Amino acid sequence: MKDLLTSALDAHGGLSRWREIEAFPIMRLLNIESSPRGSKSASIAVTNAFLEAYRQACPGVMVDTLNVWEEKLPDFDQEAIGAKYKGVNKEPMDQGETAVWDKIQELAVRFQQADRIVLGVPMWNFAYP
After folding, report:
1. Do the domain assignments include residue 55?
2. How far, in Å, CA of 98 to CA of 24, rounded?
3. Which CATH number is 13's domain given?
4. CA distance 15 to 77
5. Total domain count for the chain?
6. What are the pLDDT digits (tens) for 68-119?
7. What is the DSSP string of the chain?
């Protein structure tokens, strides 16, 4: 594929631009797995096939997988909402709010650092869960 793309770019005077793109740092891809079925999941199998093909086309890609069933996600409850508002407004927080806000920030950074996001979403009864 790279030879085909390089030939097409060269034919249109864009080969130097392609070489500039190759010099960029590693692309970050956030892969979100949302099926509770693990190795039996069709959506995870499809996503993994896509990621394998993508890695072949873009060998410099770095994949960060966030499995929503394995990740310790904070409950989005009254405490989390209060922590969010205090965090955004830079107000003092108690220990519980600080822990929730730190986890929210940690998860947000993974999205912010991603150049691309892949959502592996299962289909149950022909609809999304």
Report:
1. yes
2. 36
3. 3.40.50.360
4. 52
5. 1
6. 999 988 888 998 999 999 999 999 999 999 999 999 999 999 999 999 999 9
7. -HHHHHHHHHHTT-HHHHHHHHTS---EEEEEE--TTGGG-HHHHHHHHHHHHHHHH-TT-EEEEEETTTS-PPP-SHHHHHHHHHHHTT----HHHHHHHHHHHHHHHHHHH-SEEEEE---BTTB--
pLDDT at 23 over 60: no
Identify the domain containing residue 99 by its residue range. Answer: 2-120
Mind listing the pLDDT tens digit for each residue in 39-71? 899 999 999 999 999 998 888 899 999 999 999
Give the pair of three-digit tokens for residue 27. Answer: 């692309």
Q: Indicate whether 88 belongs to any domain.
A: yes
Residue 127 lies in a domain: no
- Asked if 31 contacts 63 with a C-beta cutoff of 8 angstroms, the reply is yes
Residue 126 included in any domain: no
Q: What is the pLDDT of residue 128?
A: 65
From edge to edge, which strands make up the β-sheet containing 116-120?
A: 62-67, 28-33, 116-120
